[in-house]
Write a structure and sequence with these properties.
- The structure holds two protein chains of two kinds.
- Chain A is mostly helical.
- Chain A contains 14 helices and two strands; from the N terminus they run ααααβαβααααααααα.
- The longest helix of chain A has 37 residues.
- Chain A is globular.
- Chain B is an all-alpha fold.
- Chain B has two domains: 347 residues, ABC transporter involved in vitamin B12 uptake, BtuC (Orthogonal Bundle), CATH 1.10.3470; 76 residues.
- The longest helix of chain B is centred in the middle third of the chain and has 32 residues.
- Chain B is globular, with a radius of gyration of 24 Å.
- The chains are: A mainly alpha, B mainly alpha.
């Protein structure tokens, strides 16, 4: 039995990847949940908003790289990120003006807004494929690792290595900064408070003189920022492919619903619940089990509950369980 | 213009467009458009049951269509006897044990008294059942997949006529719809959308990865056909004589003959389903559905069981999509799980229903034909438009080359814009409900 090596193997293959992935999902789910709270519909275009923002960032990153601008050991994409957010915000505000505002005015049913978001999804998806193409794009540069597996082994003398990719650390730090800023904004500033008031009770908020159009605009700006950051972090960590971003819609929605739609804290918790379950269910536990169990009990197979091809099934199964037993989510959400 | 006049007029326009394609391009293309148009119309009819009658938002049409495709393989391919001998029974036993575990879990949850014990017992049963399922199932799978993997490596089908797959496709789709409907109906309307989106992705993932079932991404090709093969027709002297008397060469005549045969089969199914849907719409049941759609609370106050009725129509609509999916795979005579794209099989159908006129059966059929026609023709037209637009640029201009390469993605953009424009300016569609 060798708990230290088991723990290192667990951290390397499960904990660290799941924390990075969970942060990306949480940022995505925060965007979905904010739209749900303020505009009261499920935004199906969110995955493609992420793809669009990421695409803008990737293009600007390439431009910077061609001019020889770099960010030292950090990826150039972080420098390009603010510009990417600006481009994404412009597009998102445009879609709100051109499409969603009309349905708000006529007080359309939420399902009509969902449908309109489907149309927006089409258009954004088409734009992204039109501009950058449907293929995989890598845009990460700078240092690849903070600690490589070999260095870690040399440092500690353990037989298991622990690799920490710089993108994973960047993801976690950025996510913490962004979430802290968002909660400060929602809880301490006047605009943030008016957003929460509008989300809690629309009529009462209107009565106390809150301008709904301004609340909606600020929401879209925040959502564009969150979506672009989540998309860029995911792209840095893995790679950028438009179709993958469309598929991310399912785990993101699962995170938001598991946490309770409309509840920002729930979105973060949901993101980590989904990420950890996905990674743990699809991880082959043979190595970890080999360290913990006595030699005679060591497993022959991979001890993998499900092949990685079914990772979407995991988020879906959790979604169904939550819908069956606790439709409002782990934290109290708005919807039933 | 009154609807009674508008309906035949619009159908005549679509027919004229298809005939024009036949005259200007080729009759083979025209018949291909007609056949896929018939299938699209059936899918649109199924979605219209769910959305137009009951207001249920299903974005997992792709999954139900794919299940229909799976049914064709299960019904029509010859059984792989070696594979059955190697591990067929073991796979079936494993699946049965998996199903029994889930049923036991559900029963225990319902029967045991509330409390911590209940959760623990159910969890223990599920974990134990899963472990057993995997030990039995995995061995069977690897045995089956090892049998001649280059050409079979799967269990094969039942070797029955492929037409039987059409109803079975409907049954499979209905089963999946039951599972989804049981969990997501009765909750907020958006939840059904998300759940259906998820089940569609999972069905496709299963079909891509479970090689023992239908060879996964290795595809099943050469499905039996309900109609004779072109080659056999060409060698039939009687057929050649008839063809030449019509002024056609035997090769063209045989392809046209087969395509027309499919058109006839599909038309029969479409007409049957359309009559059923029309009867349903104008029956007390149809009126009740629309009453539920328009005001759930009022309908519930009248004693209607809203969730049950929703479940019923959700299953019916999905079954129709499953039938259409089986028909489409029959037409292609191959099952390629990699070809199922949500854009083509879910969202395109939605555009058909919205453009045609939700709540109106004839409208969905019209939308099916019209949007399919546009879907096929937009790409060449888009390419032509881009070439015209960039004709002033040099032949090797980077922007020009990029634009022309990306012409294929015009479809997405066009469909999105069409959906949004219709939703905004003509939400009732071409043929409104009333």
């Amino acid at each position: 039995m060798d708990f230290l090596n088991a723990f290192v193997a667990l951290s390397n293959f499960v904990l660290i990847p799941a924390i990075a992935y969970g942060s990306q999902l949480a940022l995505g789910a925060l965007g979905v949940t904010l739209i749900y709270g303020i505009l009261r519909f499920s935004n199906f275009a969110h995955g493609d908003t992420m793809a669009f923002g990421t695409m803008a960032t990737v293009l600007i990153t390439w431009w910077f790289q061609s001019m020889g601008i770099s960010f030292g050991p950090l990826p150039t994409a972080l420098l390009a990120l603010p510009f990417g957010i600006a481009v994404c915000a412009a597009l998102v505000l445009l879609t709100d003006r051109g499409i969603y505002r009309f349905y708000r005015r006529v007080k359309a049913k939420p399902i009509i807004l969902v449908m309109a978001s489907l149309g927006v999804m089409f258009i954004m998806n088409g734009l992204v494929r039109f501009i950058i193409g449907p293929d995989d794009q890598r845009f990460a540069d700078g240092a690849r690792f903070i600690v490589t597996a070999g260095e870690f082994k040399k440092m500690t003398g353990l037989s298991e290595g622990l690799a920490l990719k710089s993108t994973q650390a960047i993801t976690l730090v950025t996510a913490i900064v962004v979430v802290a800023a968002l909660f400060w904004f929602l809880n301490k500033t006047r605009t943030g408070k008016s957003m929460r008031a509008y989300s809690d009770n629309e009529d009462l908020a209107l009565l106390s003189g809150i301008n709904p159009e301004r609340v909606v605009m600020v929401t879209w700006l925040i959502v564009a920022g969150l979506a672009t950051i989540a998309g860029v972090l995911y792209g840095l960590d893995k790679s950028f492919k438009p179709f993958t971003y469309f598929q991310l819609l399912l785990p993101i929605f699962a995170s938001a619903i598991v946490g309770g739609l409309g509840n920002p804290l729930g979105a973060i918790a949901g993101g980590f619940v989904i990420a950890f379950s996905e990674v743990m269910v699809t991880y082959a536990w043979k190595k970890v089990a080999g360290y913990i169990l006595p030699e005679a009990w060591a497993p022959d197979g991979l001890v993998q509950l499900m092949s990685t091809d079914y990772k979407f099934a995991v988020s879906f199964a959790i979604l169904l369980i939550v819908l069956l037993f606790k439709p409002t989510g782990l934290f109290k959400g708005k919807s039933v | 213009m009154s609807t009674s006049l508008k309906t035949p007029l619009l159908f005549a326009v679509v027919a004229a467009m298809i005939v024009a394609t036949g005259q200007l391009q080729s009759w083979n293309t025209a018949l291909q458009i007609l056949n896929f148009g018939l299938i699209s119309a059936i899918m649109a009819l199924g979605v219209n049951l769910q959305w137009g009658f009951a207001g249920l938002f299903n974005v997992g049409i792709m999954g139900f269509v794919a299940l229909g495709g799976l049914a064709t393989v299960i019904v029509s391919m010859p059984p792989t006897t070696d594979a059955w001998a190697a591990g067929g029974g073991r796979i079936l036993l494993g699946l049965a044990m998996g199903a029994a575990t889930i049923v036991a879990g559900i029963l225990l949850w319902a029967r045991l008294p509330r409390g911590r014990m209940r959760g623990l017992v159910v969890a223990a049963v599920l974990v134990l059942g899963f472990a057993l399922f995997r030990t039995v199932f995995d061995g069977g799978v690897s045995a089956v997949e090892a049998v001649n993997p280059a050409s079979t490596g799967y269990l094969g089908g039942l070797g029955l006529p492929i037409l039987l797959a059409w109803p079975l496709g409907g049954v499979l789709a209905a089963g999946a719809a039951w599972i989804i409907g049981k969990t997501a109906l009765g909750l907020r309307s958006d939840y059904l959308a998300i759940a259906t989106l998820g089940i569609a992705e999972i069905i496709i993932a299963v079909m891509k990865n479970e090689d023992w079932l239908a060879r996964g991404v290795k595809n099943v090709i050469g499905l039996p056909r309900p109609l004779p093969y072109e080659v056999d027709l060409q060698q039939d002297p009687g057929f050649a004589a008839t063809a030449s008397s019509l002024g056609l060469d035997p090769v063209t005549a045989s392809t046209l003959y087969v395509k027309l045969g499919y058109s006839a089969l599909f038309t029969v199914v479409l007409v049957i389903l359309l009559i059923l849907a029309q009867r349903a719409l104008h029956s007390p049941w149809g009126r009740m559905m629309r009453a539920i759609r328009d005001n759930e609370v009022a309908a519930e106050a009248m004693g209607k069981d809203v969730t049950r009725r929703h479940l019923q129509i959700f299953i019916l609509g999905s079954a129709v999509c499953g039938i259409a999916g089986a028909m489409m795979t029959t037409l292609d005579s191959q099952l390629t799980p990699g070809a199922y794209q949500p854009l083509r099989f879910t969202f395109l159908i939605w555009v058909m229903v919205i453009v045609g006129g939700s709540g109106n059966n004839l409208g969905s059929v019209l939308g099916g034909f019209l949007i399919w026609f546009l879907w096929v023709q937009v790409e060449p037209v888009g390419l032509w438009a881009l070439e015209l637009l960039t004709s002033g640029m040099a032949e090797d201009n980077a922007l020009r080359m990029h634009l022309i390469d990306s012409a294929a993605h015009m479809r997405l953009l066009t469909m999105g814009i069409v959906l949004l424009l219709v939703l905004r300016f003509s939400p009732k569609g071409l043929l409104p409900e009333k």
